[in-house]
Every structure is written in C-alpha cells, then in structure tokens.
Amino acid sequence: MTALPDPRDRRGRRHELTPMLLAAACAVLAGARSYLTIGQWARHAPQHTLVRLGIRAHGPLGVRTPPSTSTLRRVLILVCPGGLADLLGTAPGGTDTVAVAGKTARGSRTETQAAAHLLAAVTGAGNTVTQLRVPAKTNEVTGFARLLAPFDLTGVTVTADALHTQREHARYLVEDKNAHYLLLVKGNQPRLHAALRSLPWCQVRARRYDRERGHGRRETRSTHVLTATDLHLDFPHVVQAAKILRHRTDVRKGKVTRQTVYAITDLTAQQASPQKVAQLARSQWTIENRLHFVRDTTFAEDASKIRTGHGPENMATLRNLAIDTLRRAGHRSIAAGLREVSYMPHSRPPRPTQPALNSNNP
C-alpha cells in the first residue's frame, strides 16, 4: 500500500496513509459496514494492535492514538480506488480462469447521482483480482480492457457474460493479452445468436452431463460442444461453440425451469473438452455466487448509504479483501468467519478448525 499516493494535503497530517488503510481493512474483516463502525474499531484497538498497524507514537510516553472516524472517512473517500483495488487483489498469473462481471451498489444512488456500478475480475477460486467503477453514462463494455490491462493474462481463460461478447474484446484477449476466452451469447448479438441456434446440435457426440443438488433445488446441465472453424460464425478467433441446457427443479415447490445458454471460445478441442467447457461456463456464474451474493447478503452492500467520492468502490474493495482473507483462512462460510473475527476483533482471523482463544496477535 505504500505505493499509493496520499490524496490529502501535506499540512496537518498526523497519520500516514498505509496504517489507516490497514485499520479500515481490519475493521471490515471484523464486520464493520460503515465509516462509523470502522472508526469504532480503531478507537477500541489496543496499543499492541496499533503498533502492528504502524500507527505513530506521540508524546514522551509513546502512546499511539488511532485516527478518528472523520479522518478514516476522508481517506476512504479520497484515495485512488483503482490503485487500492489492484494492490489488494490477487495476481491472476498461474490461475486457470478469470471471470468478469459487474454489480451495482444500489444504496449509493442519490437524487442527482446514479448508483455506483462496479466491474470486477475474479479467479476461478473466487479471489478478487481487481475492480473498477464504471463511469456514469457509460456501461461495462467500455471498462473491460481497462480492467484487465495491468495484468499478465498469458494462458488464462477469461469468461464473461453476454454483454461482453464483443468482437473487440475477443481480439484484445487473444492478440494483446495472449489469453483465451469463453463468452456467453444471447440476444444482444442477434446474428451470432441465430447462427448458434441453427447449428446441428442433435448430431453432436461431444457432450457432458452434470447433476447437482443443494440450496433447495436440483439442477441438471448438459453441455454440447461443436468445432466451429468450418461453421462461418464470423467472430474473431472462435474455434468451438457450446450449447448448455440447464434444468432446475425447486424441491419444495416442484417448480421446473429450463434455460438454454450458448457460448463460444477460442480454445481447441484438445485444449478444452466438453467437461472443460462446462467448467468454464460454470466459473462465470461463480462470480455471482462467491462475490456479489456474499457482499449483498453478508455485508448488506445494497443497503449501504456510502455515496460520496470514491467511498462506494473503496468499501467494496475492502469487502472483497475480507472475503478473500477468510477464504484463505479456510472459512467456507463468510458469515461464520466474520462472526469468528468479531468475537476477537483485534486478533488474527482464526481458522475454522482452530480454537479462537488466547490469541493476542493483531
């Protein structure tokens, strides 16, 4: 974090930027959802925690005074959100897939300002790579290349929903980033969608079937894959096309829903079997389940009224960091992990298999 420029005026600075950002990150990891609760966490932090955070000592006794709520708020409103997200994210090098998707922080809307819309990149393991705020009066398409530009994506397969099934995106990933793509296709690309629907799927032998049960539903997915090089799909670098049929049954209500999804990829049949294609398509839905859903339900992000400056995106970045930290500590349930930390909010997050007792490490 020391690489981040401090946006504050040099005059009157009492605390350095990095210790304050660390304090805010620790507070969110302990369950803080607002500037007020971040300030409360800092105010109640013991001296040994302030030492580890790097808070300066003042006076002859060397007492460390935490930053105030207003100071922490001002920093989170002003600090560069792109730099913070890049520094706190997971480097994608060596990972198999990166999924790109956006989310709107609904609570950040005002009478004169649209809600903040955040575009994120997440690894297949569910760890956030980075995120950026989509400028007002634009959409996610304009931010796609800017989101991924700082990272080495050589050999990584980038997945995205239908909004990003753009010819420019495909060329950018393959030609500029030496990456691969799997893109979903819907009605926003009518010619491509119609061409995929007309393919001879009933003759396909390369298939994959998957069944899952959980969260009160049963789901069956069948993935059919065709080599597309001779099918004249008129899309850059496309090699294979897939048709994914999803049958979902609500166990309690008995309601059955069916969905057909098409996808295209530059991966060859040798690089991606039907099983691999099914996994890649599934990884795109992972970003919704493992990141956006958690921020909504566990951190109540959509209910947050943080609106000013860069506050919405910086708070989202700290939530992403908290989620990643708890997952690396072995917590399968982020809500349970937050509760564990909240019982000892100024201690190192305990692993779920460890007794959370007698730990004074910040």
Provide a descriptive summary of the structure in words.
Helices cover 35% and strands 21% of the residues. The protein contains eleven helices and eleven strands. The chain folds into two domains: 1-79 and 329-362, no CATH class; 83-297, no CATH class. It is α+β, with helices and mostly antiparallel strands and 362 residues long. Helix 1 crosses helix 2.
Describe the strand arrangement of the main beta sheet, using strand numbers. Answer: 5-4-3-6-7-11-10-9-8
Largest sheet: 9 strands, mixed
| Total strand segments | 11
Q: Quickly count the helices.
A: 11
Stretches where pLDDT falls below 50 for ≥5 residues?
A: 354-362
**Beginning-to-end CA distance, first to last residue:** 18 Å
Which structural category do the helix and sheet elements fall into? Answer: alpha+beta
Instruction: Please state roughly what percent of the residues sit in beta strands, choosing from under 5%, 5-15%, 15-25%, 25-35%, 35-45% or over 45%.
Output: 15-25%
Give me the strand/helix succession. Answer: HHHEEHHEEEHEHEHEEEEHHH
> What is the global morphology?
elongated
**How many domains is the backbone divided into?**
2
Mean pLDDT metric:
89
Radius of gyration: 23 Å
Helix content: 25-40%
